Amino acid sequence: MTKILLVEDQPTAAAYLAQGLNEEGMVVDVAHTGPDGLHQLLTVDYDLAILDVMLPVLDGWAILETARRARRTTPVLFLSARDQVEDRVRGLELGAEDYLVKPFAFSELLARVRVILRRNDRGAAAHEPTTFELADLSLDLLRHRATRNGERLDLTPKEFALLSLLIRRAGEVQSRTILADQVWDMNFESETNVVEVAIRRLRTKLDDPYPVKLLHTVRGVGYVLEARD
C-alpha cells in the first residue's frame, strides 16, 4: 500500500488533503512543523513526501536539503503559494519531483501524485482501459457512449463523467468529497447537495428502467457502482 508523508502547517488543509488521499487507498502520515516532518522523513520509508515550502521553524527547502544529505531518496512534491519561476526552479534543482502552486484542486494534486508514483514504479499501470463493462452496463470513454442491455443511456456530460468515475472504481465506495472534487472540481462543503442531485438524476436513467440496480448508496460513506446478488 502506498505510504505518503504530508507536511503542512495549516490543519484544515492538511486534514482535507489527507482525507482525500486516504479515500484513494493511500496511507498518510501528517506532520505540521518542519522539524516533525524532517524526523518522519529520516526515520520512516515513504513512497512520496508532500512538503509545504513555508513551514514554521524549518521550511520545505531545508527539509529536502537535509534529507538528501542524509541519502534519503524519497520522491518529493512541493506545495507552495510562491509562484515565482525561481522558486519552482529552486525546488526542482534541490531534487524535488514536482512543484504545485497553491491554490490547486485536489484532482490536480492526485494526478501529480500518481505520475510520480508511476515514475518510481510504485503506482498503478500507466495506461488505463477505455472501455468498461459491469453486468449489462457498457461504457466507452472514447466514443462517450454508455448502454444498458444494449440500450443507449442519454447522459449529460456531468452524468457521464460521474458514471465513468464510478465504473473505473467499481466495487469501491466513493465519498462525496472525491466525487465533488473530481467531477465538479470543487471542494466539498456539507451544505452543497450537487452530488446527491446528480446521483439521483443518474440513477433515474441508469437503474430505474431496469430490474437489476447497479448504483448503491452506502449510508454515511458515499456511493458505489456494483452488481449485487
From TrEMBL:
Superkingdom to which the source organism belongs: Bacteria
DNA-binding region: 129-227
SUPFAM superfamilies: C-terminal effector domain of the bipartite response regulators (SSF46894), CheY-like (SSF52172)
Keywords (A to Z) from UniProt: DNA-binding, Phosphoprotein, Transcription, Transcription regulation, Two-component regulatory system
Leader peptide range in chain numbering: none
InterPro entries assigned: CheY-like_superfamily, CusR-like, OmpR/PhoB-type_DNA-bd, Sig_transdc_resp-reg_C-effctor, Sig_transdc_resp-reg_receiver, WalR-like, WH-like_DNA-bd_sf
Chain ranges of the OmpR/PhoB-type domain: 129-227
Pfam (any one): Trans_reg_C
Residue ranges of domain Response regulatory in the record: 3-117
The name this protein goes by in its record: Heavy metal response regulator transcription factor
Organism from which the protein derives: Massilia aerilata
